Amino acid sequence: MTQRTFTAVCFDMDGVLIQSRQVIELAWTTVARKYGVTVDQAFIDDHIHGRPGGYTLQALFGQFDEQQRVTIKQEVDAIEEVSICALVPGVAAFIAGLTGRVPLALVTSSWRARVDHVLQQHDLTSVFDCIICRDDVRSGKPAPDPYRLAAARLERQSDECLVFEDSVSGVQSAVSSGALCIGIGDDPTLSAHGALRTYADFTALPISQGGVDTHLYADGGLFISGQVAQRFARS
C-alpha cells in the first residue's frame, strides 16, 4: 500500500481547476485558420493540451518570423483571457475543505491576467497562498521548476506537496520535483508518467476529514487532518 503524508496542496489550473479544454482548442484553431495553418485533432492532442504556449506557438507557427509569432500569441491569449470556463466538478468543495488546514498553491502555464480573470470569475481570489505562472520560471512544465518554486514559496520541501494535474507534462513536472501527484481527467497515460491514481474529477476522489493527526494519502484516498493550521488560516 502506498502511504505518504503531505503538508501542502498544489493545483494546476486548466483541466484541474477549470474546464478549459474547448476554450484552448478554440483559441489556437481560430488563430491558425486566420493564418492559413491546418490543425487536426491529433495535433491538438499532442501539441496543444498540456503544453506551454511557447511550445505550441513554435509547433504551429514556426514558419513565421519572431515578430509575427509575437502578434499571433497575443491574438491567442486575447481569446483565452476573457473566456468563461466552468469549474471542474467537485473542486470548489474540495478547496473549501482544505482552506485553513493546509497551504494551497496554483501552479499554471498560464499568465497572470488570465489567472486573475479565472479567480475573480469564480470568487477564488483569496484562496491560494501562492500562485506560480508561466513568467515566474525560466523552464515551465514538464521541467520541475514550477513545483519547486511553489514549494519554496510555501516554505515546504517539494516532497511534502500533493499535486493535482491533468496532463502528461504537468505530471512529469510534479513527479520530477519530488511531489506526490494525482491525475484528474480522462487521460489513461497519466499513471504511466508517475500519477499514483487518476480520477475523472474531484467528486470521485475518496476524502475523509478528521480523525488523523497529519494529512495523508493512503492507497488512493485522502485523509485530511481536522486541525486548522493557524499560520495559513484566513479571517
UniProtKB/TrEMBL annotation:
Q: Which Pfam families match?
A: HAD_2
UniProt name for this protein: HAD family phosphatase
- Molecular function as annotated in GO: sugar-phosphatase activity
SUPFAM superfamilies per the UniProt record, alphabetical: HAD-like
PANTHER family noted in UniProt = FRUCTOSE-1-PHOSPHATE PHOSPHATASE, GLYCEROL-1-PHOSPHATE PHOSPHOHYDROLASE 1-RELATED
Taxonomic superkingdom: Bacteria
Which cofactors go with this protein?
A: Mg(2+)
Q: Provide the organism lineage as a comma list.
A: Bacteria, Pseudomonadati, Pseudomonadota, Gammaproteobacteria, Pseudomonadales
